[in-house]
Amino acid sequence: MSAQDPLVESSALVEPVETKPPTSVEPPSLVEPVETKPTPPAETLVKPLTATANLIRLLCIAVACAAAIFGVLSIGTFTAQIWHPSPGLAVAAWAASFGLPVTLGVCSRWASVRALRLIVAAEVFCFIAITGFWLLVRPDPLPAGADIPWAITFTGVPCVAVAIFARGRTAWAFTILACTLSGLVRFNTSAEANPALIGLADGLYSLLLVSIFVALTLAARRAAARVDDATLLTRQAEAERAAKVARRQERLSIDALVHDSVISTLLMAGLGRTAPAVVAEHASKTLWQLDALRSPPVQPVVLVSDLLRRLTRLTRQIAPDAVVRVDNAGTPSGVAPVERTVPSDAVAAILGAVGEALRNSVASAGPGPRRSAVRAVHRTVTVLSTSAGFQVTVSDDGVGFEPARVPPERLGISESIVGRMQRVPNGVANVRSHPGRGTDIVIAWVPERSSAVVEPVETRDPTRPPRTPVVEPTPTLVEPVETSPRDRRTAERQPETPPPAAAKSYSLSRALDLSTPLPRLILALFVLVHGVLAIIAIVPGRPLAEMAAAYLAIVFAAISLMRPLREPFPRSQIAIVLGLCGVGAVLMFIYLPPHSGVPFAHWHLGAITLILVVLAARGQIRAAWIGYAVLALSAVAWAVATGQSVGAGIELVVRHAGTLLAGTLFVVGLDRTEATLRVLTHDDIARARCDATTVAALDEREAELRRVNLLARPTLQMLAAPHVLTAPERAQCLLVEARLRDAIRGRALFVPQVTEAVTAARQRGVDVTVLDDSGDTPPDGLAALAHTVAEVLGTVQHGRVTVRVLPAGRPEIATLVIESGAQRILTVGPDGAVRTP
């Protein structure tokens, strides 16, 4: 086998398609019917679930959970504060306050955004109405020790609900309004000696607590929006890349068919060395193959036994002297054969590649079976079928060739064999040859390891009892061989599929940037609010040093938590935060007497809980709950040490558990949504890639088939009717064959201006070769280049001209080698100007 074009003197029957063509072919009309693109599946018509949509659902569920938690915690307070003039109205107000957020979470899975917004609006109206009722209708102070209205215990729920859907300014405006109303209600109902100070402190504390959750919500929304933008860009890039790959693969598949069938048929007819009946059969089969490309194969898989029969028939047609061997070493003697399957696309590629290899061998390996020769060339086709795949080795002991010296414009090996198998999933082909030592071409299809070539179906005599399963060895298919530079160039031209784009991090610890002005403002509010609470909680006669030290410890814990942190979260930083919180709690418990009677006496419990909420938001949920457990044990120990009950200590911290639990559920839900989002994003990108591949492949196939049919179908239809060709008809076949080669090898220059000039030059007797090495990046000055090439070709009257478009990135975009008398080499710049080296 050599590097010569295998089609020049080939008259063998081609059979690269896996199913039999019809016995009679009705020549289709020149105008092809336009192919209708299939309607995308229903699931592809649904808008993909975005990060923002996932986040809205998560936040609605988090609001519902928080409302349920605070609703349960407020039952005792509500029962003690029920409005006796109308208990039913009070129960309805309580049910609406906590029922609407729960409804929001339940409906978030199926309701539209507009419906969810209406629920949030109803929730806002309900909160304003209830707080207005407390201000206007029920402004009397409540009993001492129970003077915190149940209505203001869920101030943060409607604020976070508004932050889910509204803009940032609207969310912050409503947060300030809600906390102001909460402070005013506390002012009206407080039984303390200075209700104005109590109302101010309570309003500020509510603003601090709610601001943390509102800030988390808005930060998560911004992160979701960034993820959506990045996902959209990734989806578009992946779709464009997949479409580019699909167009190239479809183009190469059509080119392989044109090279193997159309061009070979035209060459046989144009050279006049083949009987008219054989040419007619070739033409009919080629027309059928072109039409068959419009529909997928009827059967997705083909039995190996059927594939063996087709290979044997194909070998007999192309190389009757070749020996076909079936090597199934894995099947023990006396055991019934195991029937396997191979995908139909792999079958088509294997048959096409084997046919091309046999034609190469017959045409170029040495003296063929129809020639007088000193030594005949021996050819073998060895088939190996196991659970590891299907392999065909085409061997001969002919003259051989050097793969590295194969010209790049030769398509027989690079595209019709190696390229064809590379375009099939899990397909591979290797060419091993050396001058004087024959040639081996290994063609194989290896299934995915997870699928194992579909489940084997055993055929046995039903009268025999079931046999013991035999473990079949799976020899390795296609041993690695050293590839030639030509093979490497072919592989380099194949676009590689990059790994799927990794979804951007969606964790709140990364989305929450504590170095921005807003977190610093919240930190300043934290320092201010707890400073005011500490002043209000001063117990007369107690040393202030312990309280001041506790206040400073808690403030420093908050400041250290707000500092920029590295990923992963440093354990030393966690230890510092929890240690300072523990010091502050112990100092405050030492400072407080058993029954101080001052308002906000245990302000440090709320302050530490807020720090733990932020710690959980930074991804350290376990550390946050460990800190809370230590805080709860400290409160119980303090209560017992001061002569109180264990229940009194638990009562001090239990309401703060709701705050930390709400924050924890928020973070846990966001982390789970992150994992779900990664899967959805990957599936969405895969679906976009698949859709783009399908559409691009159909478009490219339609364009390629239209061009091939316009160029070759009239001639093929003429050849399908057996008759002796005249000299003009043979010349026309050769001209059409040359134009098809130009379309494959010189794609960038296959434009009317150049093709007309090339045709005119060939009619004058000039041998013209057009090559395109630019790949998928044609030169920018293509119009100027086409004009220049046409002008140069018009000046050549005899000899040979080779036009080559150079790869991208070079100062010149093309070269023209003119062998007409003295050889000349011309280079063409991007502006179309001709230069002589």
Shape: elongated
Span from first to last CA? 37 Å
State the helix count.
23
Strand order of the largest sheet: 2-5-6-8-7
Largest sheet: 5 strands, mixed
SS-derived structural category: alpha+beta
Strand content: 5-15%
Helix content: 55-70%
What would you report as the Rg, rounded to the nearest angstrom?
41 Å
Transmembrane segments: 55-83, 89-108, 115-136, 148-166, 171-189, 195-216, 518-538, 544-562, 574-594, 600-617, 624-641, 653-670
Biased composition (Low complexity): 469-483
Biased composition (Basic and acidic residues): 484-495
Organism: Cryobacterium arcticum
How would you describe this protein?
With 837 residues, the chain is α+β, with helices and mostly antiparallel strands. Among the domains are: 50-191; 340-456, Heat Shock Protein 90 (2-Layer Sandwich); 746-835. It is built from 23 helices and 14 strands. It has helices spanning 42-45, 51-73, 75-81, 87-107, 113-136, 156-165, 168-189, 195-271, 276-292, 304-318, 344-364, 414-422, 485-493, 508-511, 517-536, 544-562, 571-591, 603-617, 621-641, 646-720, 727-745, 752-763, 782-795; strands at residues 301-303, 323-326, 338-339, 341-343, 379-386, 389-396, 427-433, 439-445, 457-458, 767-772, 800-805, 814-820, 822-828, 834-835. α5 runs parallel beside α7. The longest helix is centred in the N-terminal third of the chain and has 77 residues, at 195-271.
Attribute tags:
single chain; 837 residues; alpha+beta; Heat Shock Protein 90; 14 strands; 57% helix; elongated
